[in-house]
Design a protein that fits this description.
781 residues; mainly alpha; 0% strand
Length: 781
């Protein structure tokens, strides 16, 4: 078994270590041990694996992973000991058998290796790794065993012959009913009542029928001549010669057929699961085809029904608004009910919740998924799919902090799942953590060879929502172009969002062109494909938006993106109109109310309307830190200081949650309105810590902290805070101004050179700024 080659970043590794430390009895040991193994940190990998063995004594996986750690170090004997332990727990474990064969072959025990490899093949004939090792070692798959020869016929007797007068009727059962024509993959299938499910199962056993022989054996025997007796004996002899092999052959053929059918079903179900992991429109369609083919062979496969239910729900809710697809999802959910079989339950539970959500029942969907996750955690059966689905539902309801916590759990289980990465990127974008969002989208693209549509779209929108994205317009244009040109084509919804994002790109680039010199404006146009002619750019915007609505008229997200275009071109009244259209289409989506408040807060005099919109959103997501922060902002702008203070205190009551924006604003209220400098300084310091991933905002917080400490007469603390501001960001000019003034006024005689250096640096950054005159004087001293 090959070791992973991808080395994780320190941040990624830290997440895995945290997940394992938080819950050592979970499956978190596995990705952490694999990461250590890939990095060559064998001791740590060994410790984690042994804890995995202790926590999961009935599973083979941790022992197999420990064997890989030993094998990588050349300790084959120890590796084989661990593999023996794994096989003692699960004798048919494919991975343990395959690795055992590889190590035995390496040590020269080729016969034993062949036997182990054939057992691995028997456990999973379709496994690509096993087949590859078999080819490498020249081990052929076992051929079907011929049926044993029939026993010699018993001598016929005169007294027994009359009971066998009737000619034997040996029937080879047809493994498929005559009228069972193969269904077209993906074709609509009428839902059958639950009680009829058994009738869909193909019968592989001979049907029971009334035996003519047994009926005749109850009649009294007739007298027969010797001639008759001899004829009967011959008949019996020939009957046994031909009938017994025919019957044995029939049953052998049936067994072979059943085994082949099972292999094919497993292959198609596994293929569908692999396709779902790529999270693309084409993959969901292909997964549906694979699942339907599996059901054609085995209509009783609950796993196939559950996978299909999930795939059809995602297709309907996220890609194609076609109610026939919804019907297919409902049919498969119905077929998947009422069984104690646990395999594939995560697909079923996720499908149930998403179906409710996309049917306009977000509260019911959230409740369903919360209950499922709690039940799974209670049984220590954690699922990345369940966590991801819950996180997406929480995010769409505006509960961004809980969504992030939930998605962190999903990432701990499935760090390479692009769907989880995109969900986390979207959450971070809505939380205002643009840097973290970009990292998540980039990882989703890394795992999908730069092709994941939602990651392409998310990255482009993140760039276009920056205050000053000029240097990154080219990247946004490239991502949107890749989305539109991809083959196979992405879904109508994704293409529509891409066109609307393209309109936003054209609008922002066209507006910014007028603010730069002609040469740079021309380069910008060539890099993005945006015309330097404003009237042509306007026509292109109209065309892109028209195409977007033509592709997916029912998607309220299109109104949100159009609203953002109008927002960034300072047409705020028009932007509010578009966002309200989205709210009208989906009033229970808290994020849409946030978008409206964002527009209104930028509009002069729009604070009361923003406060109203946010208050309504908080009825959907009570206690949301993001919504409370925005509400506190709206109140503070209306000089409702006490209301704002109380709102922001509530937004920051969870000390574990990073919320630099709320703490920064609260610190200013305590300093400027409440005159509580001590409390203000505490909050500015916490805000700076919250902003550790955003150097510019951290610098602003430390700069304000320096001013606050200076006002309190705490010179040493003020000096320290100003120094931290300069260290956080070398490009935040106001901090240089404030620090130079402080040193000139409160510094020591030996600070003269430092004053000059700080003032000079300010002039490099902002030679025409408000502080320029003062700084020129200090720099000249």
């Amino acid at each position: 078994m090959p070791s992973p080659t991808k080395t994780l970043s320190p941040a990624e590794l830290a997440k895995l270590e945290t997940a394992f430390a938080t819950d050592p009895a979970s499956q978190a040991y596995k990705p952490l041990a694999e990461a250590y193994l890939a990095m060559g940190r064998y001791m740590e990998a060994m410790v984690v694996c042994k804890k995995g063995v202790k926590a999961h004594p009935t599973l083979a996986d941790p022992r197999v992973l420990l064997a890989r750690v030993y094998a990588d170090q050349g300790k084959d004997k120890k590796a084989l000991e661990e593999l023996q332990g794994a096989l003692a727990v699960v004798p048919t474990d494919r991975d343990a058998l395959r690795l055992t064969a590889q190590l035995q072959w390496k040590s020269g025990e080729k016969d034993a290796a062949r036997q182990a490899l054939l057992k691995a093949y028997e456990a999973d004939p379709a496994d690509a790794e096993t087949l590859g090792v078999m080819r490498e070692f020249g081990v052929e798959a076992p051929k079907p065993v011929a049926p044993p020869p029939p026993p010699p016929p018993a001598a016929a007797t005169a007294t027994s012959a009359p009971n066998l007068l009737v000619e034997a009727d040996v029937t080879v059962p047809n493994p498929l009913p005559a009228d069972a024509a193969p269904a077209v993959p993906g074709a609509p299938r009428r839902a059958a009542p639950a009680r009829a499910a058994a009738s869909r199962r193909p019968s592989f056993e001979p049907e029971e029928s009334v035996s003519e022989v047994s009926e005749l054996s109850e009649l009294p025997p007739r007298k027969r001549s010797k001639k008759d007796s001899g004829g009967l004996a011959k008949a019996l002899f020939f009957m046994l010669i031909f009938a017994v092999p025919a019957g044995a052959g029939a049953y052998y053929g049936i067994g072979q057929y059943r085994a082949k059918q099972k292999r094919e079903v497993n292959k198609q179900v596994q293929g569908a699961q692999d396709l779902l992991k790529t999270d693309t429109f084409a993959a969901y369609k292909q997964a549906c085809e694979q699942g339907e083919l599996a059901l054609d062979r085995d209509p009783s496969s609950l796993l196939a029904h559950r996978i299909l239910a999930y795939a059809y729900v995602v297709r309907w809710g996220e890609h194609e608004h076609d109610d026939t697809i919804k019907v297919r999802a409902e049919e498969h959910l119905k077929e998947a009910q009422g069984s104690g079989e646990e395999k594939g339950l995560s697909y079923q539970y996720a499908a149930e919740a998403l179906l409710a959500y996309y049917s306009g029942k977000p509260s019911e969907a959230l409740r369903l998924m919360e209950d499922r996750v709690k039940a799974a955690e209670a049984e220590n059966k954690k699922s990345a799919l369940l966590y991801n689905t819950l996180g997406v539902l929480q995010m769409n309801q505006g509960d961004l902090e809980h969504a992030k916590e939930t998605l962190d759990k999903a990432l701990a289980i499935a760090p390479d799942d692009p769907r989880v990465r995109v969900a986390m990127g979207t959450v971070q974008l809505r939380r205002g953590a643009d840097g973290d969002a970009s990292v998540q989208f980039a990882k989703a693209l890394d795992y999908t060879k730069k092709s994941h549509p939602e990651a392409l779209l998310g990255t482009a929108i993140a760039i276009l929502d920056l205050a000053e994205p000029a240097r990154r317009y080219k990247a946004a244009a490239e991502y949107l172009s890749a989305l539109q040109k991809a083959e196979p084509r992405h879904s109508p919804r994704q293409l529509a969002m891409g066109q609307m994002a393209r309109a936003l790109l054209i609008a922002r680039v066209s507006k910014d062109m007028g603010e730069y010199e002609e040469k740079f404006a021309k380069e910008l146009g060539e890099a993005t494909g945006v015309s330097t002619d404003p009237s042509k750019a306007t026509r292109d915007i109209d065309a892109a938006e028209k195409e977007a609505f033509g592709l997916d008229r029912t998607n309220p997200e299109l109104f949100i993106l159009k609203g953002r275009r109008l927002f960034w071109t300072e047409k705020l009244d028009d932007a509010a109109v578009e966002v309200r259209k989205a709210i009208e289409a989906s009033s229970t989506t808290a994020q849409f109310h946030v978008e409206l408040a964002r527009v209104l807060l930028k509009k002069e005099g729009g604070e009361p309307q923003a406060e109203e919109a946010l208050t309504k959103a908080l009825t959907l997501v009570p206690g949301s830190p993001k919504l409370l922060t925005m509400l506190g902002t709206a109140q503070a702008r209306q000089k409702k200081w006490e209301e704002a203070r109380l709102t922001l205190e509530k937004a920051t009551e969870d000390q574990k949650t990073r919320n630099g924006e709320a703490r920064f604003m609260l610190a200013r209220i305590y300093r400027d309105e409440k005159k509580d400098l001590k409390r203000s300084a505490e909050l500015f310091e916490k805000a700076a810590a919250d902003y550790y991933a955003d150097p510019s905002l951290a610098a602003v917080s430390y700069d304000e902290l320096g001013y606050t400490q200076e006002s309190a007469g705490l010179k040493d603390k003020a000096r320290s805070a100003y120094e931290k501001a300069l260290n956080a960001s070398k490009e935040y000019a106001p901090a240089y101004c404030h620090y130079a003034r402080f040193l000139a006024k409160e510094g020591q005689p030996n600070d003269k050179d430092r004053v000059k250096a700080v003032a000079t640096e300010f002039l490099k950054l902002d030679p025409k700024g408000e502080c320029a005159a003062d700084m020129k004087g200090l720099a000249a001293q």
